Amino acid sequence: MPVKVNNQLPAVKILEADNIFVMDEARADQQDIRAMNILVVNLMPRKMVAETQILALLSNTPLQVNVDFLYMASHKSKNITQNHLDTFYKSFAEIEGKYFDGMIVTGAPVENLAFEAVDYWGELSDILDWSRSHVYSTLHICWGAQAGLYARYGTPKHALDKKLWGVYHQTVENPKHVLFRGFDDDFVSPHSRNTETYASELPHDFEILSYGEKAGLSIAVKKNLREIYSFGHLEYDRMTLDFEYQRDKSVFGAQIVPDHYYPNDDSTQKPKMNWASAASLFFSNWLNYAVYQDTPYDLRDLAKYEYFNL
Questions:
Q1: Contact indicator for 291, 137 with CB cutoff of 8 Å
Q2: pTM, to two decimals
Q3: Is 233 marked active-site?
Q4: Which PANTHER family match (predicted)?
């Protein structure tokens, strides 16, 4: 949450010079407070696991957050019951008349397919197009990031020589950016993908915020913060990569373990969890600075914003 102070306090100018957000009294008096409305487009096969991971990160803030989960009506889920979807999820038809402060589009294990070959691609494309006038800021994760860039800008994905799989070091390219407020100079994040996006092919109005020597492009944003693209999986819990290893070791071989994950690369040992603080801070910063501070009080006003019609 921002610090509210008298705008004549000398420390305000010092903090603002370091890009530390301080709300002066005039702005605070004009600000209405309400709950944030977040839509989660959950494309992950283990939907209940993804639900828990994302809710844990969204809850780590003093803001009240209302969360709706969205499923693809054009896709038959194999790892969750229809009763769970009917009870806890909504279809696009049920929410397309509503407005949201933020939206999260998760990853999905379909990256080896062409985008148009994914059975719900048409529906997802419609949702991304709808979000331009109905969502203030969208956070895309892994394949969801690649899908968002392709649907909106035609940015392609490129096959890797081998799967990027493990926990990788990444740098903070702009320490003063609001999404990395409170971060150290570098951090680690899980990645699990067979494809990548080239930084050189991003739209001109994008900024690269995080990069890794091995992971490549990690986090990039549209400069107005309406679109955030994270190519890793900061939301993963301690055992997610272990689940993937146990599931896939018969295919890749038991000796092919995720990089920098198990102590001494020994899959019998408990994995290290060394990205939790970065994940918590990143999601909190997104909610606070990209969503809460700028979204209109009346979400119906979203369609009136000039840049929603660009």
A1: yes
A2: 0.88
A3: yes
A4: HOMOSERINE O-SUCCINYLTRANSFERASE
Given 111, 123, 142, 227, the catalytic residue: 142
In Å, how far are 133, 187, 216, 219 from 282, measured between CA atoms? 25, 11, 19, 11
Q: Is 247 annotated as a binding residue?
A: yes
Is there a catalytic annotation at residue 235? yes
249 a known binding residue?
no
Same-domain status, 87 and 163: yes
Name the catalytic one among 134, 177, 191, 233: 233
CA 74 centroid distance within chain: 23
Q: Is 196 known to be catalytic? A: no
pLDDT at 139: 98
**Per the structure, how many domains does the chain have?**
3
Q: Which residue has the tokens 């102590």?
A: 263
Are both 181 and 266 inside the same structural domain? no
- CATH number at 82 reads 3.40.50.880
The pLDDT of residue 297 is: 84
98 is in an annotated binding site: no
Give me the domain span that covers residue 45: 32-237+275-309
- Judge if 161 and 223 occupy the same domain: yes
